[in-house]
Specification:
Blueprint: H1 2-22, H2 29-37, H3 40-45, H4 49-62, H5 65-70, H6 72-87, H7 99-115, H8 118-124, H9 126-155, H10 171-191, H11 194-198, H12 201-210, E1 216-219, H13 229-232, E2 239-240, E3 245-246, H14 256-260, E4 266-269, H15 271-278, H16 288-299, H17 339-345, H18 351-355, E5 361-363, E6 373-375, H19 388-392, H20 403-406, E7 409-416, H21 432-436, E8 442-446, E9 456-460, H22 470-474, E10 483-493
Antiparallel strand pairs: 1-4, 2-3, 5-6, 7-10, 8-9
Helix pairs in contact: 1-2, 1-6, 6-9, 6-10, 9-10
């Protein structure tokens, strides 16, 4: 029963989070957004005390069920491991805990986190690793399937689907996601939960609490025949059948050992009550149905956040693909407060990247800020009415803002390159940037103040410009726009 409950809830969490990342319309966040907010490291960074306390209590009562049910990377390893067991049954063996590696990796994680080395933190964080895999590898495939359905629907004059632009947001991050998936798959195929019990910082922290959990996998030595099936089916390599011991710091309470035992020698309950039972203190059997209901009840949560529908941008005819300018200061989204705050809280899960309806966000390729989301305006601009990124972030990298507040947040300011501007060069009357500026920060003025008939050039009022990028995106000049946005280290209200 324990294994069935674990598989059921683990599948629901995994499927929900996978769909949350793959959904490019943003509608599923209304129903599934809470799944991201109950991830351990993200809740800690967001100072979500309620979630952190609940996760600790769950671990103290049930053991490391977080790793086998709530963590999507843990469930992904179980899926790969399941195929590995299909290829060869009874493939695992018992091994002593590699404490030096576990605590060493945790120490490295804490050091790089305190030092502000965001890239290293993002590489080690489990939810972030899964987010990169889902966003960079799975979402594009999902979008391609959508586009094929859109073509099919169009053939039958249906508008049930619409085509979307599928493009590579970052080649380095795509390669990192692919390498991460391959490494995890190999480890899970061969040795089950190696990553969880040697590298993962969240698993190591939870292991401290799991040692003292109320409910544990326990041996009935009178029934045990030392057949070793429990050890050979333990993906955490934590069951020593010879000495009838379980390393609870590594056990993820998957229930595979109980299901594999043919003699009923393993059970999941309180160890002290189990000993009292054999001493004659209690003669009542544990009601497995009530225990299963207790586990199931502890895993159920409900939450919902409002979400906007998909906005589809128009645009000018593409002559050449636009290229991103070299910005002196990277652009971080409204609500991130400052570049320092954003870098200190973001775990690089890419959820905001996958949810951006205007294709403004993409992972940074800068080595100093690799995988940290940044803004660029080749595919769209940051619409003043959209606050989706601040709504979906589970790690507290954003201050939750509303539409009215966003319209006054200055994340940067526009800079004109008159040498590229077709209006300033007298090639054509343009003024595209001025016409589409949502805050009226740009106006066309004569390039020669003394000659009103001289070619017009854009003039930017930096006190009004919020850095939304509409001017840069809609500028017809290719490949580099004649106007671009420079970021601000610290955001301010205008």
């Amino acid at each position: 029963m324990l294994r069935k409950i674990r598989i059921t809830f683990g599948s629901l969490f995994f499927l929900g989070l996978t769909l949350l990342f793959m959904d490019f319309t943003g509608t599923l966040h209304h129903y599934l957004g809470w799944l991201a907010k109950v991830q351990a490291l993200e809740a800690l960074l967001a100072l979500n005390v309620t979630v952190v306390v609940v996760l600790v209590l769950l671990t103290l009562v049930f053991g490391r069920i977080y790793c086998s049910v709530i963590c999507p990377l843990g469930v992904l390893q179980d899926i790969v491991g399941w195929f590995g067991k299909k290829a060869r049954k009874n493939r695992y063996t018992y091994s002593k805990a590699m404490s030096w590696l576990r605590y060493g990796m945790l120490g490295i994680f804490l050091i790089v986190f305190i030092a502000g080395a965001g890239t290293a933190v993002q590489l080690l964080a489990p939810y972030s690793a899964f987010g990169r895999i889902a966003t960079m590898l799975l979402q594009p495939l999902w979008m391609l399937v959508n586009n094929m359905l859109a073509l099919l629907a169009e053939h039958y004059e249906s508008y049930a689907f619409y085509s979307v632009d599928v493009w590579m947001k970052s080649l380095p991050v795509l390669l990192i996601a692919l390498i991460t998936l391959v490494v995890l798959a190999v480890l899970a195929w061969r040795n089950g939960r190696t990553y969880c019990n040697t590298i993962c910082p969240v698993g190591t922290v939870l292991s401290f609490f799991a040692r003292y959990s109320f409910l544990k996998i326990t041996f009935d030595e009178d029934k045990c025949k030392n057949c070793s099936l429990c050890t050979k089916n333990c993906k955490s390599a934590c069951i020593d059948f010879k000495n009838h011991k379980v390393d609870y710091s590594r056990c993820v309470v998957c229930g595979d050992c109980i299901s594999s035992c043919k003699f009923g020698a393993l059970s999941y309950h309180n160890a002290r009550l189990h000993k009292a039972h054999h001493k004659g203190v209690s003669s009542e059997n544990v009601d497995s149905g009530k225990r299963s209901f207790l586990v199931a009840t502890a895993l159920v949560s409900t939450a919902a956040l409002a979400q906007e529908s998909k906005h589809v941008d128009g645009g000018l005819a593409d002559i050449l693909e636009k290229k991103a300018p070299e910005r002196k200061t990277p652009l971080t989204p409204p609500g991130s407060l400052s570049h320092t705050h954003f870098a200190g809280h973001c775990t690089g899960c890419q959820l905001c990247v996958s949810k951006c309806p205007n294709d403004v966000l993409r992972p940074s390729t800068d080595l100093m800020h690799l995988m940290l989301p940044e803004m660029s305006f080749e595919k769209g601009y940051c619409r003043p009415e959209c606050t989706r990124c601040s709504e979906v972030c589970p790690a507290g990298a954003f201050h939750l803002i509303d539409k009215e507040e966003k319209s006054g947040i200055q994340i940067g300011h526009a800079v004109v390159a008159a040498d590229f501007c077709i209006s300033a060069l007298g090639e054509a009357e343009c003024g595209n940037c001025a016409r589409h500026c949502p805050t009226g920060a740009i106006e066309m003025v004569p390039s020669d103040p003394d000659d009103e008939l001289s070619p017009s050039v854009p003039a930017v009022n930096e006190n009004v410009c919020i850095g939304c990028g509409a001017c840069e995106y809609l500028c017809p000049v290719r490949p580099l726009s004649a106007i671009h946005v420079e970021g601000h280290e610290v955001h301010k209200m205008v």
